UniProtKB/TrEMBL annotation:
Keyword Oxidoreductase: yes
GO cellular component, one term: cytosol
GO molecular function, a single term: oxidoreductase activity
KW Oxidoreductase (keyword) present: yes
Residue span, NADP-dependent oxidoreductase domain: 15-289
Alphabetized UniProt keyword annotations: Oxidoreductase
Protein name: Predicted oxidoreductase
PANTHER family: NAD(P)-LINKED OXIDOREDUCTASE SUPERFAMILY PROTEIN, NADH-SPECIFIC METHYLGLYOXAL REDUCTASE-RELATED
């Protein structure tokens, strides 16, 4: 396994992230984490709202400092408490203390805002996160499931005020679900954020596993086309459908770190195999699940080569600096 820098930090993380949301057995959790570590993986993902996941992870990890552990807050700790959820300072502090106890550690490598809380000012969230960084309780911060403008504004506030900016973005991304290519992924690339992509196998659809749980008749034409294209590509390149689906997402952007869930060492062994797809295979996969970025991205792309917009040199300008 190879490694990436996490956002614009010096933190080294594995190119594959192990999601621990489905952990439910201490022994199995330890064996899965050991298999991931043996393959070179070091980035583990959990959340305060994932049931017993944090506690199982804390029990299973024996060499804590060898791992990069990320967890999240914002989701409800107590449904009856008005302040038991949200991204405000009070819930952040109480959620963080609970996560530290469950994980059996005195610091968290990456602390994520789990979802945008439109009722809490961004200034409050970013300052509270920065305070936790300065206190040594967390090292880096990220945000999950938020609009691009929210992330951009939050990092602008952090830049202006000397606070810790978001280094990572966590979003759903797969061949079936490509919405992030519209605004979120270009923003992350421009701001230097790492993108941990959840559901990269579309709940098993792109690995072949969904057929056991989902009635094929209920799949949309797009979902069927994507699954068929992945299986065809896998047969062509001599890989498994999971390996093809993960390779596609990796090759779409160097910022992306697929986040995969695994219950056993066999699934780890399959998913850590990194392959490179030929350009033609990438094009066929793209075409199988067509995606339009929409306005303004498509309109701007058309205008970039228009002499009417950018003059006679519009088609002579090389990209980059």
């Amino acid at each position: 396994m190879r490694y990436r820098l996490f956002g614009r930090t010096g933190l080294r993380v594995s190119e594959l992230v192990l999601g621990t949301m489905t952990f439910d057995d201490p022994g199995q959790a330890r064996r899965t984490i050991d298999a991931f570590a043996d393959a070179g993986g070091n980035f583990l993902d959990t959340a305060s709202a994932y049931g017993e996941s944090e506690s199982l992870l804390g029990e299973a990890v024996e060499q804590r400092d060898r791992f990069v552990i990320g967890t999240k807050y914002t989701l409800s700790r107590d449904a009856a408490d008005p302040n038991g959820a949200g991204s405000q300072r009070k819930n952040l502090r109480l959620s963080l203390e609970r996560s530290l106890r469950r994980l059996r550690t005195d610091y968290i490598d990456v602390y994520w805002v789990h979802i945008w809380d439109r009722h809490t000012p961004l200034e409050e969230t970013m300052r509270a996160l920065d305070d936790a960084v300065r206190a040594g309780r967390i090292l880096h911060v990220g945000i999950s499931d938020a609009p691009a403008w929210v992330v951009s504004r939050a990092n602008t506030l952090a830049e202006w005020r000397g606070w810790t900016p978001f280094a990572g973005l966590q979003v759903p991304y797969s061949l079936v679900r490509r919405d992030v290519e519209r605004e979120l992924l270009p923003m992350a690339e421009a701001l230097g954020l790492s993108v941990t992509a959840w559901a990269p196998l579309a709940a098993g659809l792109l690995s072949g596993g969904a057929s056991r749980r989902v009635d094929p008749a209920k799949l949309s034409p797009r979902e069927r086309a994507a699954a068929d294209a992945v299986r065809s590509a896998a047969a062509e390149v001599g890989a498994t459908p999971s390996q093809v689906a993960l390779a596609w997402i990796r090759q779409k952007s160097p910022a992306v770190l697929p986040l995969v869930g695994a219950r056993n060492a066999e699934q780890i062994a399959e998913n850590v195999v990194s392959i490179t797809l030929p350009d033609e295979v990438m094009r066929r996969l793209d075409d199988a699940a067509e995606f339009e970025r929409g306005f303004p991205a498509d309109f701007i792309a058309e205008c970039e080569t228009s002499p009417f917009v950018f003059g006679d040199t519009a088609t002579k300008l090389d990209a980059g600096r």
